[in-house]
Amino acid sequence: MADKYTLCLPALRIRQGKHYIYCFGVDGKRIHDFTTVSRVRREDDHLQGYQRPEVLSHINAIRRYLESDGAMLPNAVVLAFDERVKFKVSKTATLVDYTTVGELIIPIDEALPENDKPAWLVDGQQRSAAIRDAELAEFPIAAVGFIADGQDHQRSQFILVNNTKPLPKGLIHELLPDTAGHLPARYARRQLPTRIMARLNNEVTTQSDIDSPFRGLISTPTVPDGYIKDNSVLKMIENSLYEGALYQYRDPRDGSGDEEAMLLHLKIFWGLVKATFPEAWSLPPRKSRLSHGVGIQALGYVMDHLTDGIPARELPTLDLGKPLARLKSVCAWTSGVWEFGNGESRRWNGLQNTPSDVRLLSNHLLRSIR
Amino acid sequence: MKFYFPDSQDLVSPTYDFLHDEYSPLRVRQRDDLYAHEVLSRPPYDGILVSKAIVDGSVRGAGKYTAPQRARLHRLGVRKFFRLPRGVETLGDNGAFNYVEERIPPVTVRETLDFYQECGFDAGVSVDHVIFGYDPDATPETVDTEWAERRLLTLRLAAEFIEAVDAGNSTIQPVGAAQGWSPDSYADSVRQLQSMGYRRIALGGMVPLKTPDIIRCLEKIAEVRRPETQLHLLGITRIESMEEFARLGIASFDSTSAFRQSFMDDRRNYHSPETDYVAVRVPQVEGNSTLKRNILGGVVSQRDAIRTERECLRRLRRYDSGDCPLESVLDALSQYEAITKSEKTYLDAYRRTLEATPWKACSCALCREHGIEIIIFRGTERNKRRGFHNLSVLFKKMKKLTLCSTNGSRRG
Ligand SMILES: [Zn+2]
């Protein structure tokens, strides 16, 4: 049998100009008892509701996080109440005049159809669905509510709340290596590559990586003087990790990897690149195609070609200097002309960081060392 | 008779989570994923067929390989790239179907041979140009001139190909491609290829032909075929005619149809040695475009859809462990059919499948591991596993036929 009762939640009422907002805690498992997630639908030619459908992949990612150890959801969900919800003041005197302590009184009728529930979820649809699906007995969350003056008000709040910009990429590359705990899928995947890159680049923290040929050269928010684009190096590392020589250090069951071996592998190879082309290595991409995305990636393929399947500690026995020296006569990193054969040629700086130019240069380099 | 499976980058992810329907966020495609020969206890084919067009792209489409994958195929060679066990052979071809609409093949003999050699194939098919038509009575004089030109071009390219193979001291076994539009024209192609020195010949362009027409061509070819010449049928299965094909000199063939039926056929999705079954459709709410549209349009409640979808899966799993009656499973499936607004009902066919529980009788590693999941038509991971299972069934059927075909060839 469906129940009819009242839910009383301790709350703070905060005055904002002529509006009030209410801050309170609520068990996320119960949110759907009194909240509707209104979706866009048409009724008699009028636009009703305003919300998008649930994104299941996103919900799953949050659910997975919630079921992990020590999960926390510090940001509040936002609810728009209609006039059936009341606030009862319990203590008039507080230290500040804009905050009042009291109770939110929410009438619950389980028999009510979805669209007649007293609260609408303005923000937090994915989070509350994830809590609903998670294998947890309860999960109290912070909530902020307001009593709306009708649907337009609710809709504008929805747009405002959902208008945040994603974080800039450079910042994420820098934050990821030292982030602990559960991460969303697309970040989890990047964590190992960004950590390898950070150690290749790092100027101060790790003495052990003092021998990196990339030291201080990769441009990031905290290494603004670096001239090699972080994305170029990251792509080279990811390519090799997924398709090339670094894959041998990876565990396909959990995606972890032997970081030290990867670093050693990269340091040995790129150290030889630096030794083979000292001038081109020391110049910014504007003056050298070696420090440019096209050069870093093409040489990444050369590394994979020469060293795939060979463990880092055995690399010194390979005499990699020899094939790299053979490249000298066919490279035009800083001046002259690239001769690709079949009459195709480009000025030294005529190569761009596009998939087709990376392929053109990689094939050219690979042909020369075969 | 040998069966080759054409590669189209079909793999499954061993870390896929069937309960939550999600991939590990750390999964690396192809490398962490597994081929049919890696998930089944023994490879369900004698060899794989890899088309240059699938790897490098052609006029129609960009190919199925990413640039780094392609680089790795060239670097490691086909055996290591596919992680092939000993005994599984490799055959390269052009993928002539990808440029069937061009006037001439957009690829040269040199490029093709380079591809075979760099990747280290055991054998490679000469460059050909498909004739898309069949007219048993037409002669070279009366036939559509384009058809005649395509056949002559294919023969010219085959001559060029075997010359290049010989000149380059290549270890690749050359396979001559034969095209034709009639029994006579095919037979003449085979005769010419044999005199160029080919000991292995691939018959192309027969996919649209009816089985009796194929047999008529093979009979005509048999009149000129030298005893040592081995024939390969490109793209054809027709298991019911295999013994006949073998008697007429077919030594190998390739086909994706058993695999693709698992998710392309309307009814014959799951094969067993005796019969075929329909797979139980439980589409993902997010993966079904009609349902998605109806949810966006407010016609269907997403909550109801998700609830029913989960209920179907729950009951199917409990049915498999003996905790849920068949009627209750069918009831949930029928509700979900209503929500997804399925154009037709499969309920009777589902009843047949679920009553028979064919996955319980199968000894393949996938049915053993996944149970009823393998017969659920849902998402690529289940559908491809079912396709791999089908390959293993086909392969077993094939191997039973082999005995007859050796007898046959001894007789003939
Ligand atoms: Zn099976």
Total count of domains of chain A: 2
The CATH superfamily label of the domain at 46-255 in chain B reads: Queuine tRNA-ribosyltransferase-like
Chains forming the largest contact: A-B, 40 and 34 residues
Overall mean pLDDT of chain A stands at 86
Largest sheet of chain A: 8 strands, mixed
Largest sheet of chain B: 8 strands, parallel, barrel
Strand content of chain A: 15-25%
Gap from first CA to last CA of chain A: 78 Å
Uncertain runs of chain A with pLDDT below 50, 5 residues or more?
none
Coarse shape of chain B: elongated
| CATH topology-level name of the domain at 46-255 in chain B | TIM Barrel
Distance between the ends of chain B = 16 Å
Structural class computed from helices and strand pairing of chain A: alpha+beta
Domain tRNA-guanine(15) transglycosylase-like (chain B): 109-260
GO biological process, one term (chain B): tRNA modification
InterPro entries (chain B): DNA-guanine_TGase, TGT-like_sf, tRNA_ribo_trans-like
Protein name (chain B): Queuine/other tRNA-ribosyltransferase
What does the model show?
The complex is a heterodimer of chains A (370) and B (412). Chain A has two domains: 4-167, no CATH class; 182-369, no CATH class. An eight-stranded mixed beta sheet of chain A has the order 3-9-6-10-2-1-8-7. Chain A is 36% helix and 20% strand. In chain A, α2 packs across α3 (125-133), α6 (185-201) crosses α7 (230-243) and α7 runs parallel beside α10. Chain A is built from twelve helices and 14 strands. Chain B has 412 residues and is of the alpha/beta class. Chain B has a domain at 46-255: Alpha-Beta Barrel (TIM Barrel). Chain B contains 17 helices and twelve strands. Chain B has helices at 36-39, 52-56, 67-76, 78-81, 109-119, 145-167, 183-196, 211-224, 242-247, 257-264, 289-296, 302-320, 326-339, 347-356, 358-361, 365-370, 379-411, and strands spanning 2-6, 47-51, 89-93, 123-125, 173-178, 200-203, 230-233, 250-254, 270-271, 276-277, 280-281, 376-377. In chain B, the strands form three sheets. Chain B has an eight-stranded parallel β-barrel with strand order 1-2-3-4-5-6-7-8. In chain B, α8 (211-224) links the parallel β6 (200-203) and β7 (230-233). In chain B, α6 (145-167) runs parallel beside α7 and α7 crosses α8 (211-224). The two termini of chain B are 16 Å apart. Mean pLDDT of chain B is 93; it is low at 403-412. Chain A binds chain B through residues 39-42, 48-49, 53-57, 60-61, 63-64, 114, 184-186, 188-189, 239, 241-244, 247, 250, 252-255, 301, 304-305, 308, 355, 358-359, 362, and chain B through 14-15, 20-22, 24-29, 31-32, 66-69, 71-72, 75-76, 284-286, 292, 295-299, 301-303, 306. Chain B: It comes from Kribbella flavida (strain DSM 17836 / JCM 10339 / NBRC 14399). Chain B: This is Queuine/other tRNA-ribosyltransferase. Chain B: One of its GO terms (molecular function) is transferase activity. Chain B: Keywords: Transferase.
